[in-house]
Amino acid sequence: MMAWLPWPASLRERAGRYLLQRYLGRFLQQRLSLQQLSLDLYSGHGRLSLLQLQPQSLNEVLDSLGVPLEITDGFIDSISLSVPWSALMTENCTVEVTGLQLTCSPKYHVAPGTESPSWASCMTTSMQLAKECLKDPPSEPSEPTQPLEGLEIFAQTIETVLRRIKVTFIDTIVRVEHTPESSDTGIALEVHIKRLDYCDEAVKDSGGREPIPVDVHQPPAFVHKLFQFSGVTLQCEELCDQGGYSQPSPPRAEVRPYPDPRPHSPLSPLLDSLSATGP
C-alpha cells in the first residue's frame, strides 16, 4: 500500500481540512479557521480552544438515533489533535477532547424510524469521501491536479486512518434538566466523567502497531467500537422556578473502575459501609 507522505503536500492538506470540516465543523457555532488549522495539522499537532457547539446539528444526530433527549447548550474547552504523518498505516491518530459540557432536556413524541438527512450524509464510504475530497480545488492554482488512478489507494488510506482514530474525553459533564409543566420546581441530573476512551476494536486486536486490513469495495457489515469509562460520578440538583437550584442532594454516587484502584486495607469494608450510609 502506498504511504501517505510521498503524496503532494496540497493533497494531505486538502484531505485534513476536508475531513475535519465534515466530521467536526458542522457541530460548531462558528466555522473552523481552515488556514490556521491546516498549518497545525501539517506539523502533526493541532489544537482548538473555546468551542461553542451547535445544538441543532447535535439534535439531528440524536433524532436519527431515536434518543429522547434534546441538547440546549454545549461547550468544549479544547480539542487536541495528533497526526503521525510518517506512519499513518501503523500508528494511531489521537484526539483529546477536554472540558466537554452538554446541557439537555427530555424530549417526547420522538417519531421512530426518522433519520436526519444531514446525519445520513455523513454515513458515506471512504471511496465517496476520497472522490469528494479530490473534487475540491487545490489551495495553490499552480499545483497540478491529482490523477484519479490513485483514488482507490487514497480511499484505503482514509479508511485506515478513520479506523485507527483514538478519542479521549477528559472532564466531561452531561447535565439533564427537567421541570414538569405543572410544577414550580424541577430536577437536574449531572453525570461527571473523568475519562472516556473510544476506539475501534480492530485497533486493539492488531496490537496498535499493525496495519488494519480494509476493503473499500466491501465494507464490513458490522463495526465494533470500544468505550471505556473511569471516574464517573452522579449529582442531583433541585431546580427552582427562576432557573436556579437549591443545594445539591448528598451524597454523590461514584462508579469506580473494576478492579478497585484503591490500596487494600483491613479497614476497607468498614470505610465502604460508612461512605455508603453517609454522615
TrEMBL record:
Residues 253-263 have a biased composition (Basic and acidic residues). Residues 242-279 are annotated as: Disordered. It catalyses: a 1,2-diacyl-sn-glycero-3-phospho-L-serine(in) = a 1,2-diacyl-sn-glycero-3-phospho-L-serine(out); a 1,2-diacyl-sn-glycero-3-phosphoethanolamine(in) = a 1,2-diacyl-sn-glycero-3-phosphoethanolamine(out). Keywords: Endoplasmic reticulum, Lipid transport, Membrane, Transport. Residues 267-279 have a biased composition (Low complexity). The keyword Membrane applies. One of its GO terms (cellular component) is endoplasmic reticulum membrane. InterPro entries: ATG2 (IPR026849). One of its GO terms (molecular function) is phosphatidylinositol-3-phosphate binding. It is a peripheral membrane protein. One of its GO terms (biological process) is lipid transport. Pfam families: ATG2_CAD. Belongs to the ATG2 family. This is Autophagy-related protein 2 homolog A-like.
